[in-house]
Amino acid sequence: MKPSYPSSYMTWECRVGSTLRGSNKPIKASSEKDPELEQVSLTFKDPRLGTNRESDPSHAKPYGSAKRKPKGSPEHPRREDTNKRTSQERYIREIERKQALTEKQELKAALANSLKKEAEVNDQLSQL
After folding, report:
1. Which of 6, 95, 1 is nearest to 39 (CA)?
2. Within a 13 Å sphere around the CA of 17, how many CA atoms are in the beta-carbon half?
3. Where does the record place Basic and acidic residues bias (predicted)?
4. CA torsion sign, 119 to 120 to 122 to 123?
5. CB 10 within 8 A of CB 49
6. What pLDDT, in 10s, does the model give residues 10-33?
7. Tens digit of pLDDT for each residue in 34-86?
8. By the 8 A CB rule, do 8 and 41 touch?
């Protein structure tokens, strides 16, 4: 005979069975037809869940272990190296971008100067 719990407790029915690979057929979960079906009723205060361990000090574990790193050492050295490398690459790209913008402005100024000189030469040729 199963223990009776108040209606506020949840009842879970689950069937352990096998299905064919790739089959989309649902598994039948009928308690009358299938002897493999088991019904489990658990509560939050159920000793099978192990939730009452806080009151028992024998289950307490010390914090930390002998394998812990000292406070000064980095937790993730590879991640820090990757972050440093990424930051350096970003800085280099920013410098290259600024240099390219400066060069572009210089080329625009040189082109404007060249067009001005060409216009002056064309004026002189037309006067001849």
Report:
1. 1
2. 16
3. 45-59, 72-92
4. positive
5. no
6. 444 444 444 444 455 555 554 455
7. 555 556 565 666 666 665 555 555 555 555 555 656 555 556 678 888 999 99
8. no
